[in-house]
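Revision sheet: structure tokens.
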Amino acid sequence: MVLAPIKNCSRLRLLTYKDLHVIAGWDKDPEINRLTGRVARENDELDQWWNDIMRDRSRMNFAITDNEGNLIGDVALEQIIWRTREAELRISVGNKAYWGLGYGTEAVMEVVELGFVAMNLDRIYLRVQEDNVRAIRSYTKAGFRKVARLVANGRLEGSVDLVLMQMLRDSQAGQ
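Predicted:
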């Protein structure tokens, strides 16, 4: 799916190959890695990662920028199921200097609007570690509601349990 340039989005732009090098560096930070669960990649793996991102019709990846256009994080709609019109949101503000300043919340609100308006989704959900109070507060501020508690399993087994949060298109319209 090719989208027109993102209108009225002050923080989002399409992810570029050059961004992956910066993101890969952030993913090596133990705190960021614990919060995102994302696998740190080495430079020689970036080409494959980029090719996977570009071929996968079930995801849309965006860069989050500051006021000067500098990359500070990334956000994606993944696991997009076009038939049921739903997707999972994933975000990481990798530049810790921008934590707690509202950039993540703003990016979430922008990607949600993009998902509901431009992509015609009906449901956007996310999973977050239940001890990530800052993120849960941000998601709630953006309009997400808690719907379930999930036991961490698979690669997350033995870690903090997760909270499933979602937003429906109808609930977003009243925000």
